[in-house]
Amino acid sequence: MFEIGELVKWYETYGDVLITKDTGLGVVIQKFEQDYGFSDGPWVTYKVFRAKYGDTMIFEREFLEKNESFSNGT
To answer: For residue 32, what are the β-bridge partners?
Structure first.
């Protein structure tokens, strides 16, 4: 879904609830796929460099979106 080097918008939430704590822009720097055998496919997470903080965090795909404001329309 997301490629390494892609600019994304990330969302950080409060624990188990889907209330947004913080958001910002970042770059995908690594992709992880792990098959635990209890779902339809691998569990995919992404390591993202967060420009706002100059650090990295790992996000599930549900907490990332393509940044359409920088899209070239393709």
So the answer is: 45
